[in-house]
Amino acid sequence: MSDVSEDELAAFIGPRAPYYLRAWRSLSAHQTNFGGVNRAAFFCSAAWLLYRRLYRLAAIFLGVVLLESIVSAALFRHRGVPTPVSYDLLTTAIYATVAGLFANRWYYHHARGRITALKNRGIRSPAALAEQGGTSWLAPIVGILAALLLLRLGLGLVL
Prior knowledge:
Largest sheet: none
Oligomer: single chain
Number of strands: 0
């Protein structure tokens, strides 16, 4: 996989490395821009991003969701009606689909970028790559709770 080896990627990813390496082979060979559907990202979009330590993408993703939620609540409230369930279902389906379709690609570019940056700083050992990569159970818990708090505060201002 070009300047980053599969062994380095495997160390960075952790136990789920076989799944991601298989999904990324077509991406690294420039055969396609599609890395397959990631079911975990589809069903747990923001939580998956945080779990896989894609913090910047998670912040962007949650920012878009929060902003859209606040704006839609304000627009529907201005019209004197609650946000329709069908609208909520549609936006949720769109977010889930985007995350599910692009998650493997996002993670591929994140992993390669982080590994390259670490190698440029002279950090090359598998243990160091594993420490910098891997997953975090705490990040999704804290991130989702913070997002819910921000959503509540934002909706409180609008409603």
